[in-house]
Every structure is written in structure tokens, then in C-alpha cells.
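User: I've been going back and forth on whether these two constructs are worth ordering. Before I decide, could you fold them both?

Assistant: Sure. I'll take them in the order you sent them. The first construct and its C-alpha cells:
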Amino acid sequence: MIRMLPLLTLPALAACAPATQSPPQSPGGAPAAAYLALGTEPGWTLEITPARLNYDGDYGATKIMVPNPGAKPSLNGRTYVTDRLSVVIKTAPCSDGMSDRRFADTVRVVADGKTLQGCGGKILPPDTLAGTSWIFVSIGGVGVAKDRPTSLQFDGARLSGSAGCNRFSGGYSAADGNLTAGPLMATEMACPGAGMTQEAAFFQLMAAPVSLTFADDGTLILTGSGGRTAVLKRAI
């Protein structure tokens, strides 16, 4: 059986704020413990902490860990220079080439004389929700059940997904700074365990307008009345 859910009206997707050279921020607003960058072909990662530069390259075959020499300002960014490892970070949107994620910074690393290109910093919000897919992390402040697959997709002019039990779908449109979804329809299955509870919490959240915000790690946060939230991560 399929039931009709109430029409949902959601506020507009928040505009992306311009990137700055301020220290990386956690979702709570406090300085992050580390700056992260990555690249592909060959795969590498870089972690910059207040004390060290930690480079892991060639899919883990090369490791360089050196004291952080301190950042020096450069054109549109900053640099770090050591004997074995140099890093140039520029504030310019960057794609990692392996997914549709976009990062705030373009990063160049020279590791033992080998130059590599990659991305770093915060993950930028998508320009539009259309074509994006998400997975629930928590609903109403409670982590979703690991045994109940969840999803939320925005495909063309429709959205669909599951909050842990039934499938739901409906139309959506963005106009005049607002995102309007619905009417939504959902199947009527009974699910064991926490699936029904978290689904009910999500439908209750979406019964009224919600705000959409993005954390620096790309997490999507839907916030409704009373501060209730649904937190989703980008499906890759």
C-alpha cells in the first residue's frame, strides 16, 4: 500500500560562503585538529597539524613525517617548506577526479622531489541538489541503525529515498529562494527494530519547513522546528 504524506516546503539551499585563509573549522565552529588534502594517480594524503606534516604517498608505500615549519603567506594561499616535503595551498575550487566532490583548495605537494597535484580543505556544497545522493547519519540526534539501508536522492525534478524502512518519493522544485517538495508518497511496510522509529522521526521532521546547511566536511544538515535535525553524508 502507498500512503500520501503532507506537502513539504523547505527553505532554500544556503549559498556557499567564500573560502578564506582562516584555520580549518569543525562543524561546531572550533579550529579543526588538522588540515587534510588528497590526490590520486598515485593516491596520496596529507595531514597538517600544528606540530607536523604527515604525508602518505604512492598508495601507502611512501611516508614522510616532518615538523611543521609554519605557514608562509603566498598568492591566494600559503606554503610550507621542509627539506623533504613542500606544500603549496591555494584558495581555488578543486575536484579530486574520483568523485563529484569539490574542495575549497588546490594543493601541490613536492615529496622527495616528486610533484603531485590534489585538493584539500573544506568540501564545498553542491551548486544544486539535483543529481546528488545522500546517506543518513543521524535522525533526531540519534545515529541511524546500521542494519537498515538509508538514502535520499535528488533526481531531476523528483526526490526519493528511504529513512530506514519504507520508500518515499515525490516532486520538488526550487524557486524564489525556496525548495518545495511534495506531495510525497510512501509505501506502508512494517519493519523490525529501529527502522520504523527513525523513519517516523524523519517524517515528523519533514512535516514542517527545514533549513539546509553544510558542514566543512560536506555533511548536509536538515534542521527543523525545535532544533531537530537529520544529518546526511554524500554518497560516493
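The second construct, handled the same way:
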Amino acid sequence: MARFSMYVVLAVLGLISCQPKSADQHLETIPKENLLEVLLKGNERFADDHPLHPDQTLERLRELSVGQHPVAAIVSCSDSRVPPELVFDQGLGDLFVIRNAGNIVGDYEIGSLEYAIEHLEVPLVIILGHTKCGAIGAFVDHDHDHSHHYSEYIQKIIDFISSEEEEQALPRDIPDFYEKAIEANVLHGVHALKENLPLVNDLIEQKKLKVVGAIYNMETGKVRILEEN
């Protein structure tokens, strides 16, 4: 009986150690090597319609007034249907989020990520694209038919995407060009960060930083990992 009880205790402890972040557990208490798994568990809760909505209280807001300690920096699209805090079921102070149309990674985004990596010491960066992206859709339309005309600043976004090596390398006659263009744009963000900030590669080698490219599916609510370093 004593041996059986010991097994039960060990089993319970094992289950506890594998549990995702609970509503009263702050993300900065999670070991950094488990952060991506915890965020993906949060996404599973979101996609399954069982979110915890952790750290979304006035009390937490007051705690954060003295300083922030986010554990992940995320570049995502400005699309109103892709809020990272909800998609990953996280709360105030957990994520350092940079959003723009098309989740493009240019100078300003790299500067923001540099701040998050160097000064906030985030151990995880995610470049998050999504299905049915309007910015990529505009790029695809323009790429296939140059008669499409856009206003000056929207055209700048399209031109930026068009200039990405990953987009230029895509065959134009493939049937899933739109979907592949979304993925190529995400991979460009990953590559641009690593190419422009040498510190990133050093931290990856030292196991102090993980950089991930991912796609959020608008219909299922699930996040799929594209590339992980």
C-alpha cells in the first residue's frame, strides 16, 4: 500500500510539472526552455474555446506599473482578428507585441525587437503570419496584375513585400501561391532579424534565445510552427 501511495504521489507530481500555465501563474515564472510549449498550449486552449484569460485583472495591471518583464516578442499582423494575447491565451505583461499590416519586418520592427532582446531580455521571438492576410493578398493581386492601383502608403507595403528575396524566389505558377507567399513573408522576417542583428545568432547558439516563424489559421484558431531556431 505504501509503495502504491508513493506511485500515486509521483504520478500527481508528474502531472503537475506538465501542466500549462494556470490563471494565477505568471508567465515569467515558466522556465525559458518551456515557453514556446506553454504558448502553444495556450493556443490550444484558445482554439478549443477553453481559454483561461490569465493576468487580465486590474491587480495585475497595478503590479506591472513598476516595470515590465515580457517573455516573448511577437511580430504579428494588425488584422483585428489576430490579437496575439488572445490567440496564445496570455495576459498583461506577458508579450511584447509589434503589429503592422502584413507582419512585415523592416528597420522599425527590427529596432523594436532589438530593444526587446537586449533590454527586456526576452528569450523567445515569434514572427506570426496568418491565413487570408489582406496585405499578402494585395501583393499577390499586384504581382499577377500590375493594373491594380493602391494609394501611396499601401503601395509601399506591397513594394516592401515584393522586394523580399523569399517572395521573389517563389514560382509564380504554383496553385497555392497565396499560401506560400504568406509563409515566405514570415520566413523573411525570421531571416531579416538574424541577418541584421548578429547578437541574435550568438544568443541562439548559447541557447538563450529562440526565434520562431509561425502561421495562425483564421478558421481553426490554431498556430502552426514554420521554422524554429
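Notes on the second construct follow. The beta strands are 72-77, 95-100, 124-130, 210-216, 223-228. The first helix runs from residue 2 to 18.
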